[in-house]
Amino acid sequence: MTQVPETPVALLHGVGLDASMWAPVRDALKRDSVAIDLPGHGRQPALAEPTTLAELAEDVLARLPERSHLVGFSLGALIAQYIARFHPDRIATMTCVNSVCRRTEDESKAVLKRLEAAESDFPATVKASIDRWYTGTSVPESVVEATRRTLEANDVESFVHAYRVFAVGDAAIGPELRSIQVPTLAVTGELDPGSTPDMTRRLAAAIPGAKSLVVPGARHMLPVQNADVLAGAINDFIQESEGERA
Predict the structure, then answer these.
(1) Are 126 and 149 in contact (CB under 8 A)?
(2) Cα–Cα distance for residue pair 170/133, rounded to 1 Å
(3) Using an 8 Å Cβ cutoff, are 189 and 218 in contact?
(4) Is the separation of the CB atoms in 162 and 41 below 8 Å?
(5) Which residues touch 202 (CB under 8 Å, ≥6 apart)?
(6) Confidence label for 3 from pLDDT (cuts 50, 70 and 90)
(7) pLDDT class for 242, splitting at 50, 70, 90?
(8) How far is CA 235 from CA 8, 90, 124, in A?
(9) Which end of the chain has fewer CB atoms surrounding its CB within 10 Å, N or C?
(10) pLDDT at position 220, please?
């Protein structure tokens, strides 16, 4: 009897990072997986003009496996939500990691302030990001420095175009969340100051049947800080979803 190939896990990173951030999670998953560079990141051409969440998602969609368990981190989570809403046939399950959702007025003001800072002083933005993501964690300094080098290597204009989508993308996809029918897990770190536990609970409440998980002690770089915990949660969710369909 012909064995049906395993549905792969596809991983989407966040603003200013690249596919390499997923290496610890891919090792821990022990599943067929692929990590994809977002437009303007990694090996993809820099973004030379403003873009939209829809445009980023369509670009990513063209490079995804035909069908996958889609995992998105931060901006990647917003892209995953767009794909799950408008191309559900391509998605078996969706896991949104450290995702923003329906920012409050104060939360929107805070991210727009960070966008302005990136336009005026990119080196300071890199430092602030590293501090916000890693302060108080036990992540090895060599890993923190690798993240810093990835951020510093960004084309600044391209970064700003992508960050603007991150800053407003939750407002664009927010009204569509109730129409997502893909099995969904929303997960974040207890101490993430930007993609907060409240946002993860908002996301799970907005998508029918979605589940939420808050990882104790974790900050924004959950896939790096707690790769084993995240991989375990993804595996458990996939197995549970496949069991329900069977």
Answers:
(1) no
(2) 20
(3) yes
(4) yes
(5) 101, 102
(6) low
(7) confident
(8) 12, 19, 37
(9) N
(10) 97
* Residue labelled with tokens 């939500």: 81
Judged against a pLDDT cut of 50, whether residue 160 lies above it is answered with yes
How far, in Å, CA of 127 to CA of 129, rounded? 5
Q: In the 3-class helix/strand/coil scheme, how is 122-177 assigned residue by residue?
A: HHHHHHHHHHHHHCCCCCCHHHHHHHHHHHHCCCHHHHHHHHHHHHHHHHHHHHHH
pTM of the shown model: 0.96
In this structure, what token pair is assigned to residue 187? Answer: 């997960």
**Nearest to residue 222, comparing CAs of 240, 200, 201, 243?**
200
Is 60 exceeded by the pLDDT of residue 4?
Answer: no
The Cα–Cα gap between 106 and 111 comes to 9
φ and ψ at residue 181, rounded to 5 degrees? -110, 0
DSSP 8-class letter at 191? T
Work out the average pLDDT over 199-208.
98
The number of angstroms, rounded, from the C-alpha of 177 to the middle of its chain's C-alpha atoms is: 16
Task: Kindly tell me if the per-residue pLDDT of 246 is higher than 90.
Answer: no
In this structure, which amino acid lies at residue 24? P
pLDDT in tens, 75-115: 999 999 999 999 999 999 999 999 999 999 999 999 999 99
End-to-end Cα, the chain, rounded Å: 18
Element (H, E) at 36: strand 33-36
φ, ψ at 7 (rounded to 5°): -65, 125
Place of tokens 């969609």: 61
